[in-house]
Design brief:
11 strands, 360 residues, 11 helices, single chain, alpha+beta
Length: 360
């Protein structure tokens, strides 16, 4: 875009000598200041306006350069062009100033959003005891870079506890809900003896927050979530699924969807549906990997509208370590959707280290 004004002038120079005198292409230079306003500062646009008026006069008044036998420097149509270019230049300068202010504002908003994201979705530790954990987060709100998906990994005396969730709604509405839930989880993960207790504790926190808000604001903020616990010394993973897409277990038997035997109610719906949270226990041996993800992954669509077949796609690169697995998933989602991700996307990969590598 910064080179567009020069390209525009070059095109005019190519066309002007071969154009009949009654069709002076130099009149096209009227648009030059607006072309410059797309990428340059107000001062540069003002300078380009002066250049455009001067250059129009050169083309009009120099027969040898304009391909004519006589100059038209002060011919009334050309004088009108000079005036028009100056007026368009003034408008282009204003446009450039407005664009520059918007860019500065957007840069500030992005900086604030990125800071908020680092506080809300702080990077998970790479190594938590016998478990390697990696995360992926992609926001559909590209300008804000923060959305309603959430995740966390916490080392506790009960093992590594993981959370991934998806808030109903978008924008600040979803961010505030995610913050409430993450704050509750970071406390409950250490204090509750089992995952059912963690889920109940978070349910109570969300209900208290709902009671503080006017109307039904918080009551309508439902969250699907998966809680997982990987004990340090048992080859199992314990899971509570609250209406969320089932995790994938990547192990010696291939890729398996861990569907809940008794799905729990969505978070913030316990008051309506009850707060019974069933814990599923699955084998999770050294070398196995657990993938938690939000529906932004499985609801990604291709050109034909077909959903992303996560289980099928991941089988061909399931042997990758966690970071490479998530990076590959990211690139595959972009390729599948032609870089059009319409929903927030989050994923956590947890890998249980083999016994012989835990002290490395």
């Amino acid at each position: 875009m910064r080179w567009l004004p020069a390209i525009y002038v070059a095109a005019v120079l190519v066309l002007e000598p071969v154009t009949p005198v009654q069709w002076p292409v130099s009149f096209l230079l009227i648009a030059l200041p607006v072309v410059a306003a797309f990428a340059h500062s107000p001062a540069v646009v003002a300078g380009i306006t002066i250049f455009a008026v001067t250059f129009e006069g050169v083309l009009a008044g120099t027969p040898c350069c304009a391909g004519r036998s006589v100059g038209y420097l002060w011919e009334r149509h050309y004088v009108a062009v000079y005036v028009s270019t100056a007026l368009v230049g003034a408008l282009g300068t204003i446009l450039a100033a407005h664009r520059t202010r918007r860019e500065r504002t957007l840069a500030t908003v992005r900086s604030v959003a990125e800071t908020a994201q680092r506080v809300l979705l702080r990077p998970v530790p790479h190594r938590l005891g016998p478990v390697i954990v990696e995360s992926l987060y992609l926001s559909a709100a590209a300008e804000a870079r923060i959305g309603g998906d959430l995740f966390e990994a916490v080392p506790t005396s009960h093992g590594v506890r993981l959370l991934i969730g998806d808030v109903r709604g978008k924008g600040l509405f979803a961010v505030e809900t995610a913050a409430t839930m993450l704050g509750a989880f970071r406390e409950a993960a250490h204090e509750e003896p089992d995952l059912a207790g963690v889920a109940r504790r978070i349910e109570r926190s969300m209900n208290r927050r709902a009671a503080q808000l006017p109307g039904s604001d918080m009551e309508e903020r439902f969250v699907t979530a998966v809680f997982a616990e990987i004990p340090d010394r048992e080859p199992v993973v314990r899971i509570v699924n609250c209406g969320h897409p089932p995790p994938l277990l990547i192990g010696r038997d291939g890729v398996t969807e861990l569907d809940p035997t008794d799905p729990a109610p969505l978070i913030n719906l316990g008051g309506l549906l009850g707060d019974e949270y069933h814990i599923d226990v699955e084998s999770f041996h050294p070398g196995d990997q657990l993938l938690l993800y939000t529906d932004g992954v499985t609801e990604t669509r291709d050109r034909t509208g077909a959903f992303y077949p996560l289980t099928e796609r991941i089988r061909s690169w399931a042997a990758l370590p966690p970071r490479e697995l998530l990076d590959h998933l990211h690139q595959d989602l972009l390729a599948y959707s032609d870089a059009r991700l319409d929903d927030d996307t989050a994923a956590l990969a947890a890998y249980r280290l083999p016994e012989e590598t835990r002290d490395c």
